[in-house]
Amino acid sequence: MTEALELGYVPRPQQVALHRAVEGHRWVVAVCHRRMGKTVAAVHHLLVAALESGKAQPRFAYIAPTYRMAKLIAWDYMKRSALSVRGCEARESDLIVNVPNGARVQLFGSDNPDTLRGQYFDGVVLDEYGMHPANLFGEVLRPALADRQGWALFLGTPNGRNQFSAVAETAKTTEGWAYLEFKASDTGLLAAEELAAAREVMTADEYAQEFEASFSAAVKGAIYAAEMDVCRAEGRITSVPVEPGLPVDTDWDLGMGDATAIIFSQSLRSGEVRIVDYYEASGEGFPHYAQVLQQRGYVYGTHWAPHDIAVRELGTGKSRLEVAASYGLRFEMTPRVTGGKTEVEDGIHAVRLLLPKCWFREATTKPLVDAIGHYRREYNTRLQEFSATPRHDWSSHACDALRGLAVRQRVPRRRRDAEATAAEWGSWGPGAGGGTFAWT
Fold first, then answer.
1. Which pTM value belongs to this model?
2. Cα(242)–Cα(163) distance, rounded to whole angstroms?
């Protein structure tokens, strides 16, 4: 940090460690307990980096899980410090700070990833990284940092096993990365009596996650936590092969202004379901998804979509079902199975019945597995209970597609040809020899 700059910011020792890590490494992961001051440190590091940059037209970004969160959590810190520097301009309308040397720091939300596409960055901070879309960094931000050799700081408090826990493991074991971990029991930033009081009103998992930087603690309100724990314990997230003689079905969640999610699966007569692939993107039309399916090279069975695919749009008079068909994508509509309190609740119940039968191809379904583990209900602090409906965030699209898969699995469908039986077992089946895989 440049001492000559008067930003009204005196960093704590932990924040100094964070600044030094980013100055010395291109990729930094910092796992922080609540109230450590990670966001304050991140905002000031971005501002100082912009002020000190000697590059042409430098660009830096602070990215929160939502645009609203970026404005509520970080903008006041950014604006206050920027306006203390002569010549800096803070534009509240679009959360931009312009620096006299031509640099810019802008706040974004990953709930609208299209605002990040096509840009370049010299440095980015991803705050609460576990709440971002799992594919955001790899598909959008890493390319944006390439030509300028920009850096990235991944920040957050753990919220289960997801992309944040994965990047933390990468940082621990990969040369050129830096990993920092700040536990409340080590930093001494929060008074002992305050931590004791927190323990009294929080579960052990909540406390371990929020104050002791634990990724193994269960996510509060996680809907499929128990089923995914069993899935991992039984080794059903593994190198699942794709049997060439067995059709691959797809289940879609169709986004309008947000993401579209596609699950690729093979269904066996025995009841097991091999989830062999997953794809998600936003801001794309059916020509893009038709190309994705063609590039995957699978022999497809049925493409399933929710009922709203048949709704006609006012502008064109055509339904998305008709538009998709013009690009060679012919859908069947996912059946509606009701009987629970709501259609969503019935779908969640169907997923819980399905997950014990699922095998996930680890190499191609990680974003889906992360989303399933993260999917959760909102907690109402006033009523002290979880809401009936799941929280809508980056994991929703994947889990909506999974609900479709689970629901249509419960509905009787045409039996495949008898010749498919051999293909279903392939080289893994009983008596195949040489393998340790066994179907239950």
1. 0.63
2. 25
